[in-house]
Amino acid sequence: MRPPLRSGRIRRVVVVVPSLFTLFNLFFGIWSMVLAARGEYYRAGWYIFFAGILDALDGRVARLSNTGSRFGAELDSLVDVVSFGVAPAFLLYQLEFSTAGQAAWIFCYFYVMAAAIRLARFNVTQAGAAKTAFIGLPSPAAGMTLATYYPFTTTELYQASLRLLPWHHLLQLLMILLTILMVSNVHYATLPRAGVRTVRGLLGLATILFVLVFGILEHDAFFFPLGIAYMTYGVLRAALLSFFAEPEEDEEAEVAGPIVLSDAEQGEDIPGISTGGGAA
User: Which candidate, 90, 94, 72, 66, places its Cα nearest to that of 23?
Assistant: First the structure.
């Protein structure tokens, strides 16, 4: 009888691991807001970035260990609203908008609103499914782009060439674009899969190595432009495809509205925790 009991305990520990990644994601999001309130914008930005790394890991850990659950997916989305919605908006408000007039906070509100809608739509249409693309700009990408702006301002490139640009208005425009793209139907590529057996795998491996090398060596100067490039990539890709491809109906691309249950579903109790894939 001992081996089954021991196996059951190990299984319970493994099930908890993805949620621990998610909860540490929340820790970094909250701590980022504390630091932003103290005026420590550099550290605040990087803590949001660290939250993004944990967000990328929790879903992969759940899939690799086959421990995904409905509970984990819902917890992940709730945490993401804080770490990639509220925390980046609060950081930008403290950094740029707190002295810009009484109505400047509205940019932050619409950004957080879009992040919440984006995550709710993800849960309805894509959570737990195999994905080759995200519908709408992922909220972690949007949040990490805003979070790495202040570290970018500390670089020689910014100080020498970009410091005199009207950044206050550019950041307003950036928040508007991120808000629209998060709730749009624009498709964004997922993280590439690395491998050595196919050309696609080799390209994925090269991309990951490129990001790791430059991210480690030039992190302050690298990640904000990378976020802008990723945002722009989706828009340009959608624009090019609109010229060469016929529009297709895509049920997953619809903005999630009221959820209507079928007659069979209305008669069923929905458990709080059920087996399924965690949100990416």
Answer: 72
